[in-house]
Design a protein that fits this description.
Oligomer: single chain
Strand content: 15-25%
Helix content: 25-40%
């Protein structure tokens, strides 16, 4: 009965399949004007659109020629790029889009290629291909061609599809076509050919894998019942659902999907999967209890169709962001608007990125503040400040006695400081780690930089008992200071850490040092722990945000740990692979990757690496990790404990004796030993290939 009903419903109310078109380009390249021209049925010249697009402007268009199309008009100003990535992450999760890239052909040839390289890499980091997905299509539109008629022949030769192939070689994208056009001429031959090309790409991109029929019903129900509301609570959905059933609505009159209510392009019903909700009446296509709503909402969230903000205390108060485009346009467009934009209200005015919740509520009075904050936290635009000492200081300085405070890295306006730390006299333990992009045309994206600074600030910037502000960088009152592309902090035992995205966003530089002249065991332990923790945080963030980016990992010579850092080409760099090779072969020497510098003793490079002294093959063998440590290996551990530094890594309790440490590890497994050493290792939980 279910299958027959579903087939009847599909034939009478088929889901529309909009094509998502992402329109991108630098400022004033004609993006908004081209969208107006594509959606125009008039033969009149289009009036040029407003030059300052705020955030992302979503729009829909339905015609016999293009079918159902959803445009995402991306603002070209760099202040919006990080928030663009958050939007694209959700848009691309639901379907494979068509990318329409606008380039001003009046620019110099080198700048044109630079723009194309930038945007292709920008989108590359958002693509997470799944089995069955179509290859993302790219159309390049060279705008303002009418203003360079005397050069158009040469430009077409230099920037044709064939000439652009080298940019897309070994790329995840397919270059569909290149056009030279006047964006205002909706009736031109170029615009006609562009529409035909869009239609051709749509036929490819709309052919996606099938989905569960219930998702379509649920999404159509939400948009029909709540119209243009950007977000609703589960309690509101339950109330509407009960009213709908009590009204005795015929199941065959269930609201059909309008142009905005399809899940994603090309998704087909999978009739092999019957509904998961056991109901005798086919009218009950939707869940009738909160637990089922949560389950279905999470599934929709995972597929990128909605954003589910779960309230773990009161489930019925959880939010479903069903029209995220409205929020993304209004919030991103206003919150991150450059000062010259009319959308910049000046209410959120901060140089350090710290904003009170009442300030956010004042800027967006039409939205529920709980939903709004949850939305911002989910996209990792900000993080809540919970340290009591910081809250007291903020409340006193900003005169908000009972307010909540949030840190937004994207709102930090402080420029790069000239100096952060000064040279120190006496013995100093220091270490430098670098994560560098392999391809000269690639870079770490703005969103990666913001999320990295956000996570590092809240996971590793410790409160201090006494704070010396004798350097040129304002503090954000969390024992650290921040600037647009970096962060510096110092913990209570004198360990200083600095992270900065350098070299035009092509390298992440991480520096550590202990300023104590007499390094005590506990201080060294904290230095090693922080070093390992921040490296793990950085690598995890990179794998989440830019998994397709090829990177190289190095440590630099300790004598070159300085600020500002030198260019990588001028540094003695030692790759993580060479370090791992030295550890696994138990060699004291690490080869330098820069032939202009000498090899180095491992202990001088890292100061201490626990796997160097205590590296057993069974620790990295899945079949043997749960075995107890063998007698032979325990003898090696006993010898290692005599070393002051290995004792630090193996001891978990203050005041513990060497004999107590040895006795403790006699009853432990290789897995437990590996986890303990990973806390202080530059390798973290990564595998090492150890020979017998």
């Amino acid at each position: 009965m279910y299958k027959e009903f579903f087939k009847t419903y599909q034939s009478e109310n088929p889901p529309l399949t909009p094509l998502n078109i992402i329109v991108a380009g630098k400022p004033s390249s004609g993006k908004s004007t081209l969208i107006k021209a594509l959606c125009s049925d008039s033969s009149q010249t289009i009036v040029q659109a407003e030059s300052h697009t705020a955030g992302i402007i979503p729009s829909s268009y339905d015609s016999e020629e293009l079918g159902c199309v959803s445009f995402y008009d991306l603002a070209g100003q760099s202040e919006y790029y990080a928030s663009h990535e958050a939007v694209l992450h959700t848009v691309m999760a639901s379907s494979t889009p068509l990318i329409l890239l606008l380039v001003d052909c009046r620019k110099d040839q080198s700048l044109i290629l630079q723009d194309i390289f930038y945007w292709i890499h920008f989108f590359k980091c958002q693509v997470k291909s799944k089995s069955g997905d179509s290859q993302p299509q790219v159309i390049i539109a060279f705008s303002f061609a009418d203003q360079i008629q005397h050069l158009i022949a040469q430009m077409k030769a230099n920037c044709s599809k064939d000439a652009m192939k080298h940019i897309f070689r070994n790329s995840v994208f397919h270059l569909a076509h290149c056009y030279f056009l006047d964006c205002r001429m909706s009736y031109s031959n170029e615009l006609k050919e562009l529409r035909e090309d869009i239609n051709t790409c749509a036929s490819v991109l709309r052919n996606s894998a099938p989905i569960d029929f219930l998702l379509h019903c649920f999404y159509a129900f939400l948009l029909h019942s709540f119209n243009l509301q950007p977000a609703v609570q589960i309690s509101d959905i339950n109330n509407i659902k009960e009213q709908w059933i009590l009204s005795g609505m015929d199941p065959n009159t269930f609201p059909a999907s309008d142009s905005d209510s399809s899940l994603s392009s090309g998704e087909k019903f999978d009739f092999e999967n019957e509904p998961t909700f056991e109901e005798e009446n086919p009218a009950h296509l939707l869940p009738d209890n909160t637990a089922s709503f949560v389950k279905l909402s999470k599934k929709m969230h995972q597929k990128g169709h909605i954003i589910f903000l779960q309230n773990h205390k009161i489930i019925a108060h959880s939010w479903l962001v069903i029209n995220r485009e409205i929020l993304l346009h209004e919030i991103n467009g206003s919150l991150f608007a450059p000062p010259t934009f009319r959308h910049h209200h000046g209410i959120v005015n901060t140089s350090t990125g710290v904003v009170a919740s009442s300030t956010i509520a004042k800027q967006f009075p039409h939205y529920d503040i709980e939903m709004l904050i949850g939305f911002l936290l989910h996209l990792e635009y900000c993080q809540k400040i919970i340290d009591s000492s910081i809250l007291e200081l903020l409340s006193a300085e900003l005169q908000f006695s009972s307010d909540e405070f949030y840190y937004f890295p994207g709102l930090v306006s402080i420029e790069k400081p000239q100096t952060v730390w000064n040279s120190l006299a006496g013995p100093v333990v220091q270490c430098g780690w670098i994560l560098r992009v392999e391809d000269a045309t690639s870079f770490f994206t703005p969103r990666l930089i913001q999320i990295l600074l956000l996570r590092v600030a809240f996971q590793n910037a410790f409160p201090v008992k006494s704070w010396n502000r004798g350097f040129e960088c304002p503090s954000i009152c969390r024992s650290c200071c921040v600037w647009k592309n970096g962060i510096f902090w110092r913990n209570e035992v004198g360990t200083e850490c600095l992270l900065e995205v350098a070299e035009q966003s092509q390298a992440v530089v991480l520096m550590f040092r202990s300023i104590n002249t007499n390094i005590q065991d506990n201080n060294l332990k904290k230095l090693l722990f922080v070093r390992s923790s921040v490296i793990r945080t950085t690598l995890k963030c990179f794998e989440e945000i830019c998994p397709s980016l090829n990177v190289l990992e190095y440590f630099c010579h300790p004598d070159q740990v300085q600020y500002p850092p030198k260019p990588c080409e001028e540094m003695a760099l030692y790759s993580i692979n060479n370090i791992a090779k030295a550890v696994c072969q138990r060699s004291e020497i690490v080869m330098c990757d820069n032939p202009s510098f000498d090899n180095l003793i491992l202990s001088e490079l890292l100061h201490f690496e626990p796997f160097m002294s205590c590296c057993f093959r069974d620790m990295f063998d899945d079949a043997n990790q749960n075995n107890l440590i063998s007698e032979n290996d325990m003898e090696a551990i006993s010898g290692c404990v005599k070393s002051e530094r290995m004792f630090i890594a193996l001891s978990d309790r203050d005041g513990e004796s060497a004999d107590g440490v040895i006795l403790h590890w006699k009853s432990k497994t290789y897995r437990e030993l590996r986890c303990q050493l990973a806390k202080f290792s530059v390798f973290g939980s990564r595998n090492l290939q150890v020979s017998k």
